[in-house]
Amino acid sequence: MKNIIIVIGIIIIIVLGAYIFKGKSADNVVVNPNPTETPTPTPITPPIASTTEPTSSDKGPVEVIGKSVEGKDITAYHYGTGEKEILFVGGIHGGYSWNAALVAQELKDYLDKNPNVVPEEVKVTVIPVLNPDGLNKVVGTATGNFSASEVSTDQAVLTSGRFNANKVDLNRNFDCDWQAEAKWQNKDVSGGTAAFSEPEAQAIKTYVEANKPEAVVIYYAAAGGVYASSCHNGVSDGTKSIMNTYAKAAGYTANDSYDFYETTGDMANWLAKINVPAISVLLTNHTSTEWTKNKAGIEALIKSYAN
After folding, report:
1. pTM for the whole structure
2. Handedness of CA 278, 171, 74, 289 (dihedral sign)
């Protein structure tokens, strides 16, 4: 009898313990009041879009329009907000014509300090360096912020700096008489695998097509003159106008054509093909920016678009 009482007591303890444990566990479970419905998940708040404004220079907004073969920025600096855009491009031949990058940089610096030079109706865009990889080979930087003392004196290095990192002459990579095997003076150079095969040429193409500038000025070295653009369609009235305006003010000769040797895939001539007035300003040598002369030409050209 005693044993029976002990067994019954053990059973009662086990039952009570199980009931108490079940109650405690239930306290930690979220029960769906309607088991036939799937519980609604907690909504996830999407990330807030960045409201950071674009970076800017001291006086004008800055826009990275593309990257070089080596991933360096190709940067455009904008001054003014008028509808008539004038585009200035330097450094297409990188470190070989390093003064062509430096004169465009001097223009940027000048407009930083004198933004009122740009009339209300006009917008000026400056791209100091279209070939940052080539410039970096020669001066150790991919921007126009360098001095003549930083330029390599090794002729082989200087020559190699004319080309981008794919060893393509960028001024042979545009769509006017493009050829894969091109000429530079009496040398064979690469025009790329196709017109606009190079990211630097593609960057300026995309920018021009999107923004449709009224006029384009491209700096090179060295011949000491202003040259009109054309692509089997003659020199347009717009191109003649900007050529004569710039040349007269700067004291350069004005030339309807560049006939020192045959060029293919030229940037200015491609611009003529798509009906954008464009001129090539060839500095007199490979060391001077001739800033006083070019400043006069630039100001005259900008003023001509004021009305």
Report:
1. 0.81
2. negative
